[in-house]
Amino acid sequence: MAKNMQPVAKRCAALDISPAAMGYSKKTTNRNPKANVRKKKSEYAMQLNEKQKVKFVYGIMEKQFRMYYEKASKTQGKTGENLLILVERRLDNVVYRLGFATTRQLVNHGHFTVNGKRVNIPSYLVSAGDVIEVAEKSRSSVKFKRLTGEDAVVVMVPQWLEREKNSLKGTVTRMPLR
Length: 178
Known about the structure:
Blueprint: H1 8-15, H2 43-58, H3 62-74, H4 79-88, H5 91-98, H6 105-108, E1 112-114, E2 117-119, E3 131-134, H7 142-145, E4 161-163, E5 169-172
Antiparallel strand pairs: 1-2, 1-3, 3-5, 4-5
Helix pairs in contact: 3-4
């Protein structure tokens, strides 16, 4: 599997994204500020920048992004909104939004089940009514014990997801909207 190894602070600076929004703290760089800054960007440059932001935020490589775009363009409605709905439905994103994990690596290692079946594919598309929970064997892990109890981290769950309190279980109530 391909993986982007470029430094996070450098990519955040190039795409004008706050590293804190990506879950990284105090990752700033002041090397060569405002170098090669053009005052006005072309339409193509703005579109390319937005595409690169989406790819970076969701951890998608170009080939997979193209596949999502083609699928979104074939469905009815606005292509941009359909594309964002598709990438929001990815299992690694749903697990992140539910607050169960900060990286897709936990999905790769098979720590999660969808409707009772173990899934280790980050790009698995969930649908409305799916139940995502931490696998039985993984619940005793320190990573997941921190998520339950009184000292658990509070996570803002989107409206299209529902997380049960004091359990490692979440449900997709409906499809995400823009």
